[in-house]
Amino acid sequence: MVYRPACVEDLAETLRTAGARGETLAVTGSGSKPGLGPGEAAARLDLTALGGRVEHDPGELLLTAPAAIPLAEITSLLADAGQCLAFEPLSPAAIWGQGEGTLGGTVACALSGPRRPFAGAARDHVLGLAGVTGRGEIFRAGGKVLKNVTGFDLPRLLTGSRGTLAVITELTLKVLPLPPAEATLRLPAATAAGAVRLIAEALMVDGGLTGAAWRDGMVLLRLESTARALPALVAAAQARLPSGELVEGAASRALWAAAACLPAATDAGDSLWRCALPASRAPALAALLPAGAGLTLDWGGALAWLSLPPELAEFDVHAALATAAGREGHAERLRGPAGDIPPRAPLEPGPAALSARLKALFDPAGILSPRAAPGAGA
Amino acid sequence: MKMAPPDGAVMARRAEIASALAALVPDGVIADDAGVSPYGSDGLTMYRQSPLAVVLPRTTAEVSAVLAWCHAQGVKVVARGAGTSLSGGALPLADGIVLGMARFNRILSIDYADRVAVVQPGVTNLAVSQAVAARGFYYAPDPSSQIACSIGGNVAENAGGVHCLKYGTTSPNLLGVELVLMDGTVLRLGGAGMEQPGYDLLGLVCGSEGLLGVVTEATVRILPRPATQRALLLGFPSVADASDCVAAIIAAGIIPAGLEMMDAPAIRAAEAFVQAGYPTDVAALMIAEADGCPAEVDDQIARITAIAQAHNCQHLKESSDEAQRLLFWAGRKAAFPAVGRIAADYYCVDGTIPRRQLGAVLAEISAIAARHGLGVANVFHAGDGNLHPLVMYDARIPGQTEAAEAAGSEILKACVDAGGVLTGEHGVGVEKRDLMEHQFGPVDLAVQSRLKCAFDERGLLNPGKVFPTLSRCAELNAMHVHGGQLPFPDLPRF
Ligand SMILES: Cc1cc2nc3c(=O)[nH]c(=O)nc-3n(C[C@H](O)[C@H](O)[C@@H](O)COP(=O)(O)OP(=O)(O)OC[C@H]3O[C@@H](n4cnc5c(N)ncnc54)[C@H](O)[C@@H]3O)c2cc1C
Ligand SMILES: Cc1cc2nc3c(=O)[nH]c(=O)nc-3n(C[C@H](O)[C@H](O)[C@H](O)COP(=O)(O)OP(=O)(O)OC[C@H]3O[C@@H](n4cnc5c(N)ncnc54)[C@H](O)[C@@H]3O)c2cc1C
């Protein structure tokens, strides 16, 4: 069964009816992120017919758009005005090969890219939204201004909630100028420990740093500014850091387009894990990995991507994170065969209980993407 | 503004409550009238209410024990940091206790490798920056009240500062908290990493105005202080020129570290108070700050200067050294007390508007104040559209307090009508509670109120704040609000 509501009122009616029948719904559209997707449900809720107006006001740094709009459309609209989604969302196509998805799915999954430590996460750029709760109530939250503390911060709660609390129909985002000039320093670092040390040094460089990653034995440091100021920023960084190669302009952009899809290089048959942890713990994680595992770092070391070939599919990534970073580390499998290792570790009891209560309040019948809720599938 | 009638049965138990709490927090309970009186109001001094008792715990275990006891006994609790809230968020309840967090005053750890500081909630905002200054770091959110306000209060209000356009308010700079729920449950949300699994409960707690839990520890990001910071003072013949200039700066792709504006009455008050070197013959004054490496700062200052000149800038001064830069800011940061010198009392209003509406909204603000026979000075976080009209009044003159309150409400409604919101950084508290229905529909409010049920089902933590009607959770849960119609339109409102 597929429901394809044509307007918000239809969507609300669909949800109320499903709730009354206890019919579970997989909140989807293009399904660009099957690894984070809604999972099995009695019916599919297809959001592709929900249109709406796009308003972009560059001087106000605001963008309002329907959730179902393809992300690529938004990215190019912003680029034409010299702006961007500053959290640099990860490209789902690189992981799952099913397209770039939509704005709603991007916010619902909140996979922030390389700029996250410097410009903020997806959650920091969602200013307001409209949606429908699992009860079928049409609501708005947040606002269409840059600074707002009126009422509870529902936009933050719903960012990353993966369609399990409410269906988002419209989003207002803070957008930022895209710096006109960029360059990347590539410095050799054979180990994760060496990389984290180098990056820590680079972070003391004054301004302009908007990316710090490590892959294939190289630390990548992105510097961005105006064309006039960039050479001085590069010189200051070079003066402080060991010598490396300078990649400029379009070549630098290409490096980071690839970095926004860091996992692209991995083999399609590999399991792919995304792990958040304090940067200082990344070397400990690296030391626990079996031979044959691939490791790349982003977010200055605070995000680790692990790729495990099929013969290592049963390596217990959760245990490794717990050893390396205690409660500060957590991992999720985005892609790969379902084996004995669950895609997510259970939440701690306190947050788990609160999450279950929130889920019950937003979606008492448990109809929205039930298998994507925190704790489910753990 | 009316609070719910206090529960007489609880009030009659004052002595018993005090002694039970004293057993949980030895030498940490104040329950005599003179002792509780200093806690009777926060920064919104228009409202005053003494609590039953003030409890000053030292440890998370004590906070947990106090909350669990109050939960079991049905006693309401209002957490308090430094009491600088401008929305009455920390206003006590007649039938509740105040949980003062001032003794939680230690910085627990600083980790320069991961760039985080773990602090207790009673630590002041400025103390965090001071603790890491020697190593060249600072804590970015800088509310003007930073010498006094506490990190716990900042988390509760999602406080901002003059640098939050570029560096964010409290929320993006907060990585974790230890939180005690009303039933005494202690939990940790987030930590030293940049992402937590599951729902963003940390993001929800930040800015929740003390309604969801009591923060007993916070992990915040610290940043290397930029080597160069330079400020421009820009004077304009009209507010319209200044606000067009702001839009042009942003549209040119520049995000200055700070972008502040004042109108003529605010400029004159600040200059008289601080002698910051402000020109007093301009209609609008802007402070624009650039930070980063010297070349980048030079570049930004040059571009901002050019844009300002194209917008009729009639006065331009660049800070020549650090002392002068701080002096430029001193005038702005002291704008509230400066207005306090020229008016017997002032009422600080806090709304956000789409910036392009600035001229129209400022004109409306003047008209509203004039209608009430009051003066008004405006300071403005211009970069993010956050307005602070300071309505001047004299509480000794009968009727003026009410007039100031009425003018404040009308100003906030005007902000919402212009496409903005009721509060950019000071919170809803009691002050804007009854205006929430002007911004949100009944369904929007019901959806928000339900969040409270997940954390505090009995509604004992800071009730009467933020939401105009706090329905019982059972009602909210059963409520099906459709088409903007509340099923119980005559639910009592207080
Ligand atoms: C005018 C128009 C044009 C379109 N053109 C294209 C096109 O050219 N190419 C194309 O591939 N698709 C197109 N679409 C469809 C669009 O991609 C889907 O509607 C979108 O929902 C798929 O989301 P996703 O792939 O990002 O996330 P999915 O992988 O489907 O879902 C990821 C997660 O996000 C959640 N989620 C997704 N959307 C929401 C939401 N709105 N609210 C809450 N949770 C949500 C899911 O439950 C899941 O947990 C178009 C739609 C419209 C309206
Ligand atoms: C002169 C002046 C200038 C100001 N400038 C700014 C500014 O630039 N930007 C800005 O954002 N604000 C500003 N404020 C407002 C105020 O300083 C902030 O809201 C601040 O965050 C309040 O902190 P506090 O410690 O004083 O909290 P309090 O006033 O004690 O409490 C405020 C709220 O926080 C709750 N709370 C306090 N501690 C905790 C805790 N540990 N756990 C849970 N809840 C808690 C209380 O219950 C209450 O609801 C200013 C105030 C003044 C007086």
Structural account:
The complex is a heterodimer of chains A (378) and B (494). Chain A contains 12 helices and 18 strands. Chain A has 378 residues and is an alpha+beta fold. In chain A, the strands form 5 sheets. Chain A has a 5-stranded antiparallel β-sheet with strand order 4-5-9-7-8. A 4-stranded antiparallel β-sheet of chain A has the order 12-13-11-14, with helices on both faces. In chain A, a hairpin with a 4-residue loop joins strand 4 (55-57) and strand 5 (62-66). Chain A starts with a strand and ends in a 16-residue tail after the last helix. The model of chain A has no long low-confidence stretch (mean pLDDT 92). Chain B is of the alpha+beta class. Chain B folds into 5 domains: 8-100, Uridine Diphospho-n-acetylenolpyruvylglucosamine Reductase, domain 2; 107-224, Uridine Diphospho-n-acetylenolpyruvylglucosamine Reductase, domain 3 (2-Layer Sandwich), CATH 3.30.465.10; 228-336, 2-Layer Sandwich (Alpha-Beta Plaits), CATH 3.30.70.3450; 343-431, Alpha-Beta Plaits (2-Layer Sandwich), CATH 3.30.70; 438-494, no CATH class. Chain B contains 18 helices and 19 strands. Chain B has helices spanning 8-11, 14-24, 33-36, 60-73, 125-133, 151-157, 164-167, 201-205, 239-251, 264-274, 294-310, 322-333, 335-342, 358-371, 400-417, 436-439, 442-455, 473-478, and strands at 29-30, 53-55, 76-80, 96-100, 107-111, 116-119, 137-138, 174-180, 186-190, 214-221, 223-224, 228-236, 258-263, 284-292, 315-318, 345-348, 351-352, 375-381, 386-393. In chain B, strands 12, 13, 14, 15, 16, 17, 18 and 19 form an 8-stranded antiparallel β-sheet that branches. In chain B, a hairpin with a 4-residue loop joins strand 5 (107-111) and strand 6. The termini of chain B are close together. Chain B: GO terms for molecular function: FAD binding; oxidoreductase activity. Chain B: Its cofactor is FAD. Chain B: Residues 47-225 form the FAD-binding PCMH-type domain. Chain B: It comes from Novosphingobium piscinae.
